[in-house]
Request: fold
Amino acid sequence: MRELDASLEAQIYATFLEDIAQGILWLYPVEDKHMESAANLISILPSLTLRTLDAIHLGIAQHYGFERIATADKNFAEAAVALGLRVDLFE
Reply:
């Protein structure tokens, strides 16, 4: 069964790399300023359940001036909308 898992893992990773190569996904470095933004977002949105990694993603989105973000996480979507981002919510 482990061989099948490794094969599937390799396929998923290859698809991930191809999506990056085609410009479907973008990679951005996580910098100290993004951590500061994340902490700030958590403090300014206390009524929302904003997890640390979600806050980092949103901090990076703000830093790069993104206007739109996609997610399947309704809590993340609510926080993104609160920050003025348009959200593509998928299930």
